[in-house]
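Hey, I'm writing a tutorial for new members on how sequence and structure tokens pair up, and I'd like a real worked example in the thread rather than a made-up one. If someone can provide the structure for the chain below, I'll link this post from the tutorial.
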Amino acid sequence: MTDDYLKLKGVSKKFPDFTLKDICFTLPKGYIMGGIGPNGAGKTTTIQLILNILEKDAGEVLVFGMDNVKNEISIKQNVGVVFDNIFYVDSWSVRDTEKALSIFYEEWKHDVFEEMITRFDLPWNKKVSELSRGMQMKLMLAAAFSHNAKLLILDEPTSGLDPVMRDEFLEILQDYIKDGERSVLFSTHITTDLEKIADYITFINQGKMFYTGSLEDLLCGFRIIKGRPKDLTKILEDKIIGLRSTDIGFEGLIRIEDKVYFENFVVDNATLDDIVIHVSKKGVRS
């Protein structure tokens, strides 16, 4: 199996009111990649294209080095998926869920599922519809672990979870990849979660790539700038991404190479939230 578990090359999809264009990124084996961007940027569309739920118009999606369409059946034996809404039948109990899913996976392991259900403190006879959101997420994770998934694809899995449950969820993901043989693609708008666990970030904005690379490089590449509006010149203003200004002060995002122009201003480190907010306001800027 290749060391690149997921690779997108020039992936595009056009809708009447939205276009996802030329998406390119690589997720190596043994790492967690966070997918970020504002609502409607194309994160979920990208995941649906990876899973062949949607048909791409152009480009190539390779999962474990294989074409995601030609090898869809074998690929999905090794992929676990957790969406923001559970896709199991509401009337199924936890036990029923295992019976149904085990039919489809060649490497289903009951002992692993049983271990995960015990670890997650899930009641075997409770129906899916009766489980809390956190329990539903744990059930989907238990299923993914039980068929030996090498790649987890998560779309807003922590949305609506309380902070304690979210923290536990993140610990589970870190434990999942610790053997170096598994990877996670984690799309979320809760960027603080990614700051805790992500190795790589892919940032899609308005259907286009803004950034893909290490989390560290992204955070090191930008700064937050603050100051008085009267001190801003047109030249300085043009270097600011997503400028927000009031009568008493302004705030914006700058690239690290432009920091030398702002020596007389307050310069702070940027968070992922800062970068998403200011870039989304400004739009993609090369």
